């Protein structure tokens, strides 16, 4: 029996495949299988479905998984020459839930994990402020909805109000860097108001798994 809890896929190694769908979920098994047969897929890692079972039993992420996450993130960073938490070479990751069976629209996703105030400034200098702050406000909204269980509409309503302030129609995206930076601060205030918590300045990756 395979007792690993974290399965990597990328150029340097591929731990799984289609035969492990019961452990990797459909999405994770599909990515591993594509990697195994030589298709170029972005590197990543899948946390086994057994960890979800352990979490549901205890209410917390198992400590042995938490201890292995830095190594998993380090290996992922080596694949793309980036480092999680390093503002100068920031590794941003997407955390996606999965299951053995397809469940369209039922599973959670948190994008851009690894962004914080310092990383956003550096990323803005490298890729442009619009990209950095739009990515940041999306992270806050997704994290709040998926992890903190806040209603998505709280953030959508504030976004629509900002569109009106900028004389934009409902179908137009906010592209102004300063407006997006303001939204980031306003979204953080919404988290503070509705939960009494500060939005994390530095992520413990395991918190997003919950």
UniProtKB/TrEMBL annotation:
GO molecular function, one term: ATP binding
Classification via InterPro entries: ATP_grasp_subdomain_1, PPDK_AMP/ATP-bd, Pyruvate_phosphate_dikinase
Domain Pyruvate phosphate dikinase AMP/ATP-binding, residue spans: 22-71
Keywords, ordered alphabetically: Kinase, Pyruvate, Transferase
SUPFAM superfamilies reported in the protein's UniProt record: Glutathione synthetase ATP-binding domain-like
Entry superkingdom: Bacteria
Any one Pfam family match given in the protein's UniProt record, by short name: PPDK_N
Keyword hit for Transferase: yes
PANTHER family per record: PHOSPHOENOLPYRUVATE DIKINASE-RELATED, PYRUVATE, PHOSPHATE DIKINASE 1, CHLOROPLASTIC
Protein's recorded name: Pyruvate phosphate dikinase, PEP/pyruvate binding domain protein
């Amino acid at each position: 029996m395979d007792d690993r809890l974290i399965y990597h896929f990328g150029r340097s190694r591929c731990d799984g495949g289609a035969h492990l769908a019961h452990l990797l979920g459909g999405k994770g098994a599909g990515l591993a299988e594509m990697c195994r047969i030589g298709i170029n897929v972005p590197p990543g890692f899948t946390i086994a479905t057994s960890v979800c079972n352990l979490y549901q039993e205890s209410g917390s992420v198992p400590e042995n998984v938490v201890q292995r996450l830095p190594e998993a993130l380090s290996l992922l960073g080596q694949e793309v020459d980036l480092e999680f938490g390093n503002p100068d070479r920031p590794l941003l990751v997407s955390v996606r839930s999965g299951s053995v069976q397809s469940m369209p629209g039922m599973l959670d996703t948190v994008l851009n994990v690894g962004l914080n105030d310092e990383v956003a400034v550096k990323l803005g200098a490298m890729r442009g402020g619009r990209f950095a702050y739009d990515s940041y406000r999306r992270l806050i909204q997704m994290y709040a909805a998926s992890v903190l269980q806040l209603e998505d509409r709280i953030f959508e309503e504030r976004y629509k109000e900002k569109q009106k302030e900028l004389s934009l129609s409902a179908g137009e995206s906010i592209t102004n860097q300063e407006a997006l930076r303001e939204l980031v601060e306003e979204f953080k205030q919404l988290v503070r108001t509705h939960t009494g918590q500060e939005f994390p300045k530095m992520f413990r990756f395991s918190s997003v798994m919950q």
